[in-house]
Amino acid sequence: MRIALIADTHGHLDPRVADAVRGADVLVHAGDVGDGIEAAMAPLAARIVIVTGNNDPVDAPWPESQVLDLPGGSLVVVHGHQWPAKTRHRKLRDRFPEARAIVCGHSHRRLEDTDQTPWVLNPGAAGRSRAYGGPGWIELIADSDRWQVRTQSFEPPTRRRSR
Length: 163
Prior knowledge:
The protein is mainly β. It has helices at about 15-20, 35-40, 90-95; strands spanning about 1-5, 25-30, 45-50, 65-70, 75-80, 100-105, 110-115, 120-125, 135-140, 145-155.
């Protein structure tokens, strides 16, 4: 099963990320979505999963967290702003010990912390707002006996100069 993980679009999904995730079995957005992004995600994958982030409206229709039952284990989706940066991974693992992996956003920094279970995965920003190292995403391949992750990032868009 192919799961595409994105986060922190803040109202802009980089078109290169959109093209790369197209056709995923599940497209997961780990919060700070922004206007129009849910509609932009709809044609990209068979199933869409979104959680709310600290920059989404209080009345956003998405839950604060979700658990996906996947082949070989569960994936927890949460934005991550609920825990301080220094202790975030430990606290996420303490809160969700039954998960095989946890995807979170918030920091806009892409990382794969797979040294212990549950893994903590942050796809970084998939838009233009603080997309450190360029916009990107993480691909998770979940089989009943093995999970694999692959990160992909793109060059930051060039800024147009005013004349």
